[in-house]
Design a protein that fits this description.
It comes from Christiangramia sabulilitoris. Keywords: Membrane, Transmembrane, Transmembrane helix. The protein has about 450 residues and is α/β, with parallel strands linked by helices. The protein contains 12 helices and 21 strands.
Length: about 450
């Protein structure tokens, strides 16, 4: 009996009818003939409600299921599929309320779907997580009503399903094509002119317009009777590391995503491209202590190892210890490598404190320092101030933006490669820099 009462609900149509009947009873106090009519109407509503309840509880009910992907991609839209099968011999109306994980703070989820007799239907909705970790879905509640919509029966399915949110593998797949030598044009991706001949020999091919005339193979040309050129490919099996600063400077959020998560998503996409280019990729995270060190490798399983490691990377409110980074790199990364260092500097004094360690790293490795534009401050530089307060804010914003440019120039002055980028353009700019370094043979 208790189970029956917990599953029984009444629709708005019933409450509206009861409200109308009560009004009619009130009016019948002055207009007596209406009193009998109102009683008849009340009995009809009562009988229809009882028949409605009997219809809902006599049938075999419905079946429903929530289908979740194996894992969610952070900062991307992920699909969740709901399937419903109607086992009643008549048309019903379903109201679907899914208990979405608390991280989304979405409490207004409701889908209404009509279901013909003995039919099934499905729909999908999308969720965009902004934090890595485990997400728990609660109950899938479905309220079924007949065409009268006087009563409802609740069905509960899929209790406590869990899904893990990993770094953005969707973004990684979107940028996967950049590993190909013949890249199609895309907004934000630039072509890199190859300089020098530090690449490995690949083959001899027929000359086409645009090939470097310095690569003409005169012996092969004499044999074939046509201009033939040597074709080179980038050097392979070079160690490349994503070095991620997990200190408090990476806690800053932009559009709901922290700088650390932007760096993690970018390093996964960049590592995938580097693996496709036959390089060895590794990972090093650090703050006031070394978090995770994954030695560089070109094995097929390396990308999965990196994804699992990046899933666990987290940031705190500690100051970053670059001296610890230098000592650990010197001890464990003995071969000259490309170090893509994801960090952030908001003031010149912050850069000056860490510059000696960056210079020391640059003597042994090719270091690329990647830090971020403060896009919220940059927006202030483009406004048209209407009062003294806005003018003062704009002046401070311009000073901050100018300091970012000065920091990039200071690093370049000491022979350290830099990327100053907007958070949302991080992956594209990082991969562009990597392709530039490969094409110029800097490593």
């Amino acid at each position: 009996m208790l189970k029956f009462l917990r599953s029984l609900y009444f629709g708005k149509r019933l409450f509206n009818s009861l409200f109308a009947i009560s009004i009619l009873f009130l009016i019948s106090f002055w207009f007596n003939p209406l009193y009998s009519f109102t009683w008849v109407l009340a009995v009809i509503i009562l009988v229809l409600t009882i028949l409605d309840i009997i219809s809902l509880y006599r049938g075999r009910g419905i079946k429903a299921d929530r289908s979740l992907p194996e894992k969610f991609s952070n900062s991307d839209l992920n699909s969740v599929k709901i399937s419903i099968a109607n086992n009643y011999g008549f048309r019903v109306y379903s109201e679907v309320i899914d208990e979405i994980p608390v991280q989304f703070q979405k409490r207004d989820f409701l889908k209404t779907i009509p279901l013909p007799a003995y039919s099934s239907n499905s729909f999908e909705y999308e969720l965009k997580p902004l934090k890595r970790g485990e997400y728990t879905f609660g109950k899938l509640n479905i309220y079924i009503s007949t065409p009268f919509k006087l009563a409802k029966r609740r069905f509960v399915f899929n209790k406590d399903q869990q899904v893990k949110v990993y770094p953005s593998f969707i973004q990684m797949k979107k940028l996967d094509f950049l590993a190909l030598d013949q890249k199609i044009s895309l907004h934000g991706i630039k072509r890199i002119r190859r300089i020098g001949h530090t690449m490995e020999f690949e083959q001899i091919k027929e000359y086409v317009r645009g090939d470097d005339v310095r690569t003409i193979n005169w012996k092969a040309t004499a044999k074939q009777g046509n201009l033939m050129v040597n074709q080179f490919q980038d050097e392979r099996s070079q160690p490349v590391y994503s070095v991620i600063d997990c200190g408090r400077v990476m806690k800053m959020p932009f559009e709901g995503l922290s700088l650390l998560d932007y760096a993690i998503n970018s390093s996964l996409a960049f590592s995938n491209v580097a693996l496709k280019k036959k390089d060895k990729v590794g990972l090093l995270s650090f703050s006031n202590k070394i978090g995770h060190l994954q030695k560089a490798s070109s094995k097929l399983s390396q990308l999965n190892l990196l994804m699992e490691a990046l899933y666990k990377v987290d940031t705190g409110f500690h100051d970053t210890d670059y001296s610890l980074l230098y000592s650990r790199v010197k001890k464990h990364i003995t071969h000259r490598s490309l170090l893509m260092l994801y960090t952030n500097f908001e003031h010149m004094t912050g850069l000056e404190r860490q510059l000696p360690f960056l210079k020391a790293l640059a003597k042994q490795h090719l270091v690329v320092v990647i830090f971020f534009e403060n896009t919220e401050i940059t927006k202030l530089t483009g406004i048209n101030p209407s009062n003294i307060s806005e003018s003062a804010h704009q002046t401070v914003a311009e000073e901050f933006a100018h300091n970012k440019s000065l920091m990039a120039k200071e690093l370049q002055r000491h022979g350290i490669q830099t990327i100053l980028t907007k958070p949302e353009e991080l992956s594209i700019n990082t991969i562009n820099k990597y392709l530039e370094i490969k094409s110029r043979g800097l490593l």
